[in-house]
Every structure is written in C-alpha cells, then in structure tokens.
Amino acid sequence: MSASGDRRAELAAGLADTERRIVDACASAGRSRDEITLVVVTKTYPASDVDILAELGVVDVGENRHPEAGDKAHDVEASLRWHFLGGLQTNKAGAVARYADLVHSVDRVKLVNSLSRGAEAAGRTLTCLVQVDFDATDPGRAGVVPDAIGPVADAIADAPGLVLGGLMTVAPLGDDPRPHFDHLVRLSGELRRDHPGATIVSAGMSGDLEAAVAAGATHLRVGRSVLGERASTR
Ligand SMILES: *Cc1c(COP(=O)(O)O)cnc(C)c1O
Fold first, then answer.
1. φ and ψ at 224, to 5 degrees?
2. Which residues are modified to N6-(pyridoxal phosphate)lysine (predicted)?
3. pLDDT (tens digit, 9 = 90+) per residue, 58-115?
4. Are 46 and 230 in contact (CB under 8 A)?
5. pLDDT reading at 188 higher than 80
6. Distance in Å, CA 189 to ligand 1 centroid
7. Separation of 79 CA from ligand 1 center, angstroms?
8. Which residues face 221 on adjacent strands?
9. Which residues, other chains included, contact 30 with Cβ-Cβ below 8 Å and sequence gap of 6+?
10. Domain boundaries, the chain
C-alpha cells in the first residue's frame, strides 16, 4: 500500500475507534449521538491529513495556533468548519476571523472587540465560546473564572459580526474531570437564561470524552484518539 493509503487506513481506524467510544458513552448516558459534534483536532498534523479526514466524512476540525491554522484552512479544499481552540493575541484576531468559523477560547473583552472588528472587515459571522477555567491554583491558565463569564458573554452577544455560541473548558490536568464538566453544564444553564441561543458546551478531549458526554457536552475536541500521539506536547 502507498504511504498515503497507509495513513488513510490509520485515520479511518482512529476515527472508527473514537466514534465507537462516543456511541458507547452516549448509550451509557442515555443520550443520542446526534446531540454531539466531534471536532477533530488536527494541530501539528499536515493539511494532507485534513484532506483525508474530509474524505472520511469529518466536517469539523480544530486548530490551536495561528498561522498554522490559517495555512491549513488555505491549503485544504474541502469545505469544513474550522474551530480555533487556542490562546489568541488580540493582534492576530483579525487574521483568525478570516478563516475560523468558531473560536472556543474567548476569555476577555479586548479579544471580543478585536474578533468583532475582524469578522466585520471580512464580512463573516464568527461563533464565539467563552473559555472557562476551573483551576484556581494556576493563574497562568487561559479562561475566565466562573464569576467572570457574564461580562465576556454579554460583550460577545452585543458585538457586530459575532454570535455567542456557549461555553468551553479544558479540565485541569490531573483532576477528575467529571465535577468540572458538571459545573460547566450548570453554568451553561445559567447562561442560557439570558442567552437562550448559547447552547454549545465544548468539553472533552481524547482522555476524558466519556466524562464529557456523561455530563452533557455538545462538542468534543479530540486529537490523539483519531490522529495518534503528537510529536510535540501541545
Ligand atoms: C490539543 C487540544 C485538544 C485535543 O487534545 P487531545 O488530547 O489530542 O484529544 C482539545 N482541546 C484543546 C484546547 C487543545 O489544545
């Protein structure tokens, strides 16, 4: 088999394994598979992998760095939804707004304003999630503390070119993820009292997607379980 045929077989197997995990988790939780969007996180992997994933039926892909994300979005011909998941400097927000469809990592009003200007300039609509951080022990982590969701969410909802999609979190390393995911789902319920359209709950990665499905996540961001271990640690 050719090298690209080998890679296609690997990705098909990774996708099938991941899909089986999601279906099993839905069955255990009494949820329907249609409630869940799988975002395949392709960071560090080449655009050729994204091409193969698109052929295999993947619609949503995630990236965490600019310009790597923009280069891939440019190189891949298939029409996909591009999810931006990473820390974002305000001076790069305009560029990201040109190719991203969803930004999961919005954690300050200044970034909201930059994304809004970028979306307007590009004539695009960008769905934004507020990233929530539950790790009080590490102030360097991305995300807002639960009490600070309101102002960022309101700013997104009021910003031209932006739509408030909901909430996102990354479970603190080493913790049992389940209480954090349950907490995020409770916060989502509170957010929807003011913003009924903000239904997205983005939680769960390769290591903890079952816990996220059980808690009520709508979007899973899965990299390694589909593509294999990354060479770098991010
Ligand atoms: C890399 C990354 C993921 C995917 O992680 P895996 O362990 O490869 O599934 C999910 N979310 C964010 C924010 C990431 O940076």
1. -60, -35
2. 43
3. 999 999 999 999 999 999 999 999 999 999 999 999 999 999 999 999 999 999 999 9
4. no
5. yes
6. 24
7. 22
8. 39
9. none
10. 3-227
Identity of the amino acid at 35: E
- Which DSSP symbol is given to 172? P
Res. 1 pLDDT band, cuts 50 70 90: low
Residue 176 to residue 130: CA distance in whole angstroms: 22
Mean pLDDT of 4-20: 96
Report which residue type is found at 209.
L
Q: Percent of the chain at pLDDT above 90? A: 92
Q: According to the model, what pLDDT value does residue 105 have? A: 98
Place of tokens 């509170």: 190
Best mutation site among 64, 104, 168, 213 for ligand 1, i.e. most ligand atoms within 8 A of its Cβ?
64
61, 50 Cβ separation under 8 angstroms:
yes
| Structural contact between residues 52 and 11, judged by C-beta atoms closer than 8 angstroms | yes
Dump pLDDT digits (tens) for 117-173.
Answer: 999 999 999 999 999 999 978 877 899 999 999 999 999 999 999 999 999 999 999
C-alpha of residue 44 to centroid of ligand 1, in Å: 11
Per the listing, tokens 């996102």 go with 168
CATH number, span 3-227: 3.20.20.10
Nearest CA to ligand 1 atom 10: 221
What is the 8-class DSSP label of residue 228?
Answer: -
Element (H, E) at 135: none
Going by their DSSP bridges, the two strands 162-169 and 37-41 should be labelled as unpaired
